[in-house]
Design a protein that fits this description.
single chain; mainly alpha; two-stranded parallel sheet; 65% helix; extended
Length: 69
């Protein structure tokens, strides 16, 4: 498991938003409310929950620092 700053990847960022699977699920209306990931894939849900608590995004950190001024 990773701790600290997440390594930014523009390629992964774009592919996550423009994937064919995402478009099909979105247009078919099979979306679930936020927080229901444990129903579709409990193993991935637990991994992501721990990963997001132990790491932080560099862009969000910079954004917070700039907004405080």
């Amino acid at each position: 498991m990773k701790f600290g700053i997440r390594t930014p990847s523009l390629k992964k960022r774009l592919s996550a938003r423009t994937s064919v699977k995402r478009q099909i699920v979105h247009r078919a209306g099979l979306k679930m409310p936020r927080g229901y990931g444990w129903i579709t894939n409990p193993k991935r849900y637990m991994y992501n929950k721990i990963y997001n608590k132990t790491t932080f995004d560099l862009f969000k950190l910079i954004n917070k620092l700039l907004k405080k001024r």
